[in-house]
Amino acid sequence: MIEIQNLVKKIGDKLILRNVSLTIEDGETVAILGPNGAGKSTLLKIISTLIKPTSGTVMIDHKLLSKEVNQIRMRLGYLPHESLLYEHFSPLENLKFYGNLYQVKDPEKRARELTAKVGLSYFLNEPVKGFSRGMVQRIAIARAIVHDPCLLLLDEPHTGLDQKAIAILNEVIIENKQKKATTLMVTHDFKQAAEICDRAIVVRNGKIVDDFKITDHKESDLLGRYHQIIGGEA
Question: How would DSSP label each residue in 23-35?
Answer without folding.
Answer: EE-TT-EEEEE--
